[in-house]
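Incident log, support desk, overnight shift.

02:14 A customer reports that sequence design results differ from what the structure should imply. Their input is reproduced verbatim below. On-call engineer (initials T.W.) acknowledged and began investigating.
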């Protein structure tokens, strides 16, 4: 079965979202480097690399299906935040947004009875559950710590181990 033009367009749009996500995480990494929070910078750099891998996974899938890949323009990310909590709240909210996008792709593939795409997307559904859990957990820790700089330092050290 040939992949539909609508599905190709939706996946190409998701490729853009994945590259945008990568760029957002790279900017967050730079923010943490500037703040001297190398562990958090490291964690965000890992996220950046994962998002690039996600974009590549979608690109490879379109090629496997004989579809055209459109490499998008990347949006400029935010550069400054109030503190680590704001960064991770932003990351958590962003992961929820990405999850909603993946679910829309699942809905489209389901409506088109595109079982190959549904199968591929299941990996992303599972990945998004993990992404939301990870970022949500960090937000919870930082919220609990409040303005305790020693606690933030401890979380920074923990994230360096990723």
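02:41 Re-run completed on a clean worker. Output:
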């Amino acid at each position: 079965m040939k992949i539909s033009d609508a599905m190709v367009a939706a996946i190409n749009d998701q490729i853009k979202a994945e590259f945008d996500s990568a760029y957002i995480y790279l900017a967050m990494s730079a923010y943490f480097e500037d703040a001297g929070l190398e562990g958090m910078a490291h964690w965000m750099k890992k996220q950046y690399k994962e998002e690039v891998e996600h974009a590549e996974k979608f690109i490879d899938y379109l090629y496997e299906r004989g579809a055209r890949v459109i490499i998008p323009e990347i949006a400029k990310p935010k550069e400054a935040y109030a503190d680590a909590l704001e960064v991770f709240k932003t990351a958590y909210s962003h992961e929820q947004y990405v999850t909603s996008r993946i679910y829309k792709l699942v809905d489209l593939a389901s409506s088109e009875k595109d079982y190959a795409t549904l199968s591929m997307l299941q990996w992303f559904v599972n990945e998004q559950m993990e992404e939301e859990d990870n970022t949500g957990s960090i937000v919870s820790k930082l919220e609990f710590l409040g303005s305790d700089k020693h606690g933030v330092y401890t979380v920074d050290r923990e994230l360096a181990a990723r």
